[in-house]
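Standup notes
- HV: blocked on the assembly model, inputs below
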Amino acid sequence: MTPRVRRIVFLVAGGVFAVTLAWTFRALPSFGHFNGAYGTALSRVSVPERHITDAVTAVNFDYRGFDTLGEEFIFFAAVVGVALILRAQHGERAEHSADYATGRAVPPTSDAVRVLGLGLTPPTVLFGLYIVAHGHLTPGGGFQGGVVLATGVLLIYLAGEFDDLHGLYTETALERSEAIGAGGFIAIGLLGIAIGSALLDNVLPLGTTGSVFSAGIVPLINASVGLEIAAGLVLLLTMFLHQTIVLRETSP
Amino acid sequence: MTILPYLVAVWLFVVGMYGIVTSRNLVHQIISLSVVQASTYVLLLAVGYRAGATAPVFADISTTRPVVDPVVQALSLTDVVVGATVTALLLAVAVQIHKRTGTLDPEALLGRTDS
Amino acid sequence: MTALQSVMLVFVAAGGSGVVITRDPLRQAMVASFFGILLAILFFTLQAPDVALSEVVVGAVALPLMILVSLAKIRGGQK
């Protein structure tokens, strides 16, 4: 089917679909009047029962921690998939890694970028650690804090060259950190089984509401997830950059 | 206009699908897919919203105040990060397709039988 | 529904259309990043700070990064 025919077929089908969907959405509760009982019950009990002031983190890592375990492993599997797809193939060899552009000389990194990159890295890493650590108190948690931590490493790459990243970490260390983060989630969950109650049950002491060391296993799970997401994203960055900058085709 | 959020969710879905169907470039298709994913976040958060309620964080408010539903926010939260990573996976596939076949055009890739 | 939410919803719809209409992937990466920021502001007005934080870091950092590095590899192969 030619592109024009495809476009017309889609416009018809998409129009019918959109009208039907909008018609069906009239049966949803009207905007602003949601009366879901589960959410109301959870926000009422999350502070007295689990000493967690951020109800979203309580749902994510305590009440529905098992679903977050699945999501975390989707992330892990995606990183493994990228590692498989972007490995060196036949007819490629690793060249010296330096920034290059086809057909022109690469200008050196300007001083402004270098200063900004290096100056912003410590606050970014600190901010990432803060978001991971305070996930159960204020909006944040392992997922967001992990991405901010990976941003800190990205700033180092922007300020310098790809070689500078290799001085910071080895790929093996990154892969091990990601595995520790992913396995740590399960290990903490197995604590519950070891004591005789359910998987991912909140079995550690709950502490006082509002302090960083409270809410039982939730700060530990946050730290583990933060480590995995940060290591995974830096690994993705490294693999894509390795593919772009280092691997060159051997001439046919 | 209380159905505007749902209409926007439907619009984003249909527009994203249009981008995927009529695209001539694999990377353009992948980014349009992220628009489709955004429509689900808008729908979820619009369903969970309560008029006059505040964010479900009790660090500085009393626990008796009405808050919006935290369950849909928990769903969208992990979905955003995982969706970006799956996009990275798709981009890796696109990079390898370009290396093998030299083109990113879905029309040109249709019906190819070489590896 | 407050005026701010209606305005942000209209912007998000326009932003999504803009992402699809931009055909060149390099420009589309920038538009997609801007779309992510618009989404984050919308989530914020819908009283969802966690999701807004997630969308901001992903849309401003992770997504444009992956797209730009992929495009660099693809363009580098096209002599």
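- HV (later): unblocked. Chain C has three helices and no strands. The helical segments of chain C are 3-21, 25-45, 49-77.
- Next: hand off to the docking folks.
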